[in-house]
Amino acid sequence: MRITNLLTAEGVLLAAAPQSKQEAIDILVDLQEKVGNISDKAAYKAGILAREESGTTAICDGIAIPHCKSDAVIKAGLVAMTVPQGVDYEALDEQPSNLFFMIAAPTNAGDMHLSVLSKLSVMLMNEAFREKLLSAESADEFIRIIDEQEAQADEAEEAPAEPVSGGYDIVGVTACPTGIAHTYMAAEALEEQGRKMGLRVKIETNGSEGVKNQLTKEDIAGAKGVIIAADKAVSLPRFDGKPMVTTRVSNGINKPEELINKVLSPEASVYHSEASEEELPVGEEKESIGRKIYKNLMDGVSHMLPFVVGGGILIALAFLIDTIYCGMNGIPYDGNFGTNNVAASWFKTAGGLAFNFMLPILAGFIARSIADRPGLVVGFVGGWMANIGSTWAAPGGNEAGVSAGFLGAIIAGFAAGYIVKGIQFICKPLPKSLDGIKPMLIYPVLGVAAIAVVMCSINPVMILINDTISNWLKLLSQSNYAVILGVLLGAMMATDMGGPINKAAYLFGTGMLATAATYTDPAAQAMCYQCMASVMIGGMVPPIAIALATTFFPKKFSENERKSGATNYVMGLCFITEGAIPYAAGDPLRVIPACIVGSGVAGGLSMLFKCTLMAPHGGIFVLATI
């Protein structure tokens, strides 16, 4: 599909003058509606804002390419806008953006928009092409310039590649979490800079459409150095023994010459596939210990959450069904609650099975984040031992079914990861001929044995801590302190709206949800579910409150803020706190304290009325499970 098939003259606005990022988005969304690409402007805009929250789509050199998939998109389409004076769109190079393209793609369009986006982003690396677009005097001329440039790009792509005699001077990999514009622009920037310096550069892209321009063994063997410009994990062992620079993908776009000079310098460190932290290549952007721990933990939590969501909602449905069934038949809510009805029992069993995977998954992926694939098996075993409460007296789990719980699984994950790292370090002096059996025999055998020792030793302590927490929760549930906890959780959700404090409260809520199944005391279980309810309502209040304010007090807001107010109804009801961010950023001294107070009151009221929630996400869509 060609870019010009998606862009019409009606979808091009020249010489626009937005005063903010929010206003620029509003203008582009209006263009999408004008050309008939979308059916629901508010829902589509919510998708655009959600994408911006994961990372700005303003790249560098004045380019911004906002995009999203949405059910609100009727047909795939593209709109464009030039802003001669520029506007702050939070670009990677901190410069104003003046050339905008917004992509709309229906959810059933596969990765069509990603393909268009990658082609467009590479074309926009051409400075002369950008200048022509900014100088266009009409929408028709703007489209003609794109059509001509795309034809040249297609012709160059279809032409057979000339063989590179003597191999490449530099090879590398670019990758970003979404695998879209940044990945391809970094590759283009590095290869173009190489040509300017008289060097042969080949960059492999690990993007949304998979690996492209893949490096061969011959490419790597002949290269003088390797550049890894990536914001996600890429395969590195193949580069063993090569000088290497690793950095963020944004530096691949903005600092290609610096990276090339660094990897070719005599001081460039040689990468070894089992390098210790002290042997990281030159250019590695060192992280604080706290940041590393946070990233490892979040990797485990992100893989665990689908099990919490799936299992939690199924169990909640079981309780909902049994509530109706028991009420109609006069059956008491006793220890059999949730299994009195065949349908309820089925949902509770399926949900319980999903819950059984939570702690091993959490520990396994924390360990993998630390030690890569060899850490998985050791982490899984450690997580399961935390789940069943293995001790020296009862390695197969205690008869009472007491678990080391969420905290035990976190410790198991970190312990497993560093155990495997330690084993890898110890095995470094072994002959190269044993490399093949290390991951298949040495690491798993020694790792599983070591984690078993660790978990049998720490589980009694973790079980004691869990019992203490259980008793504390029981005390809170029987006193007014529960309301204070609810206020605190709700207020934290509104403090930075998606930032670390918000995430800490959400992690606490989902952690209590995951731990609830390990408690035998009904009051402690209920308290876990009450914590999750306070967290969710605390996160829903800011966008809903702002939407209500724009409706009932319109004179307090600008025209664009009023237009965006309706979107916040949708985002708030869907538990997307980030919808309030533009308003908080515009007037932080009034908006943020007001949201904190509102969310705190909501969280406290939720606790006061003993509202429970067994689903960690969903907003209004999980209302039936409250």
Keywords for this entry:
626 residues, alpha/beta, Mannitol-specific EII, Chain A, Rossmann fold, 4 domains, five-stranded mixed beta sheet, 9% strand
Explain this structure to me?
The protein has 626 residues and is α/β, with parallel strands linked by helices. Helices cover 57% and strands 9% of the residues. It has helices at 21-34, 41-53, 112-123, 127-135, 139-158, 181-196, 217-222, 249-254, 256-264, 289-329, 342-371, 374-388, 405-426, 438-477, 481-495, 500-516, 522-552, 559-573, 581-586, 588-608; strands spanning 12-13, 63-64, 67-70, 77-87, 97-106, 170-175, 201-207, 210-212, 225-230, 244-247. The strands form two sheets. Strands 1, 2, 3, 4 and 5 form a five-stranded mixed β-sheet that branches. It has a five-stranded mixed β-sheet with strand order 8-7-6-9-10. Helix 4 packs antiparallel against helix 5 (139-158) and helix 17 packs antiparallel against helix 20. The model is unreliable at 275-285 (pLDDT under 50).
